[in-house]
Amino acid sequence: MDTAAQERIVRPARNILGSLRLPGDKSISHRYGMLAAFAEGTSRFANFSTGADCASTLRCMEALGASVRKLDDGRVEVTGVGGQVMPSSEPLDCGNSGSTMRMISGLLAPQQGTFTLIGDASLSRRPMERVRKPLAEMGAKITLTEGHAPVTIEGAALRAIDYTTPVPSAQVKTCVMLAGLQTEGTTTVREAVRTRDHSELALRAFGAELTRTIDSVSIKGPQTLHAIDATVPGDISSAAFFLCAASLFPGSSLVLDSLGLNPTRATLLDVLTALGAQISVLNLEEKNAELVGTVQVSAPAEGLRSTTINGALAAQLIDELPVLAAIGPYTSGGIRIRDAKELRVKESDRIALVAKNLRAMGAEVEEFEDGLDVPGGQTLHGATIDSGGDHRIAMAFSVAALRAEGETVIQGAESAAISFPEFFDLLEHVAER
Ligand code: S3P
């Protein structure tokens, strides 16, 4: 992605007010799209993610024989291949999406044929050994280039394994589960820190049986998946930008409805509460085992306090850490982040870019191998932000810009479309000037 392709100016705001309904969760949309494309029958999804990443998943699955169409009412309709994909002569382009590449690797490893997965420059730098290793243990033939994409898979029948993930990763867990789904015997994945469990919930929704303990999931293969109709809950990681923005302005009030509140994803609400924000959750319901509800947030009159995010919390908040760090200077006591080394191998090195951009805005910040110390009580000024083509950096610093003095220029603003194409329009909608 051309990182300076599009600049966007964000002016300071005086308040955040309004109500929004956000597009469908990226993690859930990837899984619903991939499982529907693999299942028997035709599935339909309302509020499917509008992000480019989920479009990459659907395009790859189309190349593998599924059919995808947009219905007049906005729903996405996916007709699956019934458990057997078509070999694809062209490489499958995963774009910027690590979820697509890692999860599809598990889906394809037990299939017949040779498959090559490629991605953009950012994805081609991200570690893929973490999926090659468990799949190779299952007997798969996978070739990487120095640990990275292109990923070449020579499909073969696999054997079930009992695998403990060395880094907390829902993508790796899902990869192994998707291979286990198609493999004779019981495949178990164990994790030290529970990561997002959308795959477990989605597989059950598509009719698969699996068993769970506090730190493991087991799936007995082979099993067949069956089509579903579902509505994708609003994306809480996209909501994070608005929840943090609203938490910065005493007098703010923001309501987000139909938001995904899966407990493995909703830790941000606890962190904002610990920082002093007032949060209420209403109309909680369950849809295909995913919790959905309305969240109302307003900022404390005395400003946000301070917090430390480390251990299991860091893994659960991994996508929300850039925006939490970006609002750190506006808290009274600062934000301290540790045990978040994974941030360095996301779409960009998010620790380095957060530190660089906070400094550009005049903030003091200390960088660690696995985190950041962002002192509180600071005043920032507008600056030119280098998003590094990373959607979450572009959006995090658009939020920091709302409380800065003067205008901020976000370089590579188009990257927001990776997960949240509507971001800048919705920000304008709720920002009062
Ligand atoms: C995701 C898991 C996380 C997250 C990513 C989406 C998923 O990655 O950062 O945005 O949908 O499973 P890891 O599982 O690699 O930590």
Notes on the protein architecture:
There is one protein chain. This protein has 433 residues and is α/β, with parallel strands linked by helices. It has 2 domains: 7-24 and 233-432, Enolpyruvate transferase domain (UDP-n-acetylglucosamine1-carboxyvinyl-transferase, Chain), CATH 3.65.10.10; 26-230, Enolpyruvate transferase domain (UDP-n-acetylglucosamine1-carboxyvinyl-transferase, Chain). It is 30% helix and 27% strand. It contains 13 helices and 24 strands. It has helices at residues 26-38, 52-63, 98-108, 129-137, 170-181, 198-205, 236-247, 267-275, 312-316, 321-327, 350-360, 391-402, 423-430, and strands spanning 7-10, 15-21, 42-46, 67-70, 76-79, 92-93, 114-118, 141-145, 148-154, 162-164, 185-190, 210-213, 216-221, 229-231, 253-260, 278-287, 290-298, 306-309, 334-337, 366-368, 371-374, 384-386, 408-411, 431-432. It has a 5-stranded mixed sheet. A 4-stranded mixed sheet has the order 4-5-3-14, covered by helices on one side. Strand 12 and strand 13 (216-221) form a beta hairpin. The longest helix has 13 residues, at 26-38. The radius of gyration is 21 Å and the shape is globular. Bound molecules: shikimate-3-phosphate. Shikimate-3-phosphate binds at residues 27, 30, 99, 169-171, 195-196, 318-319, 342.
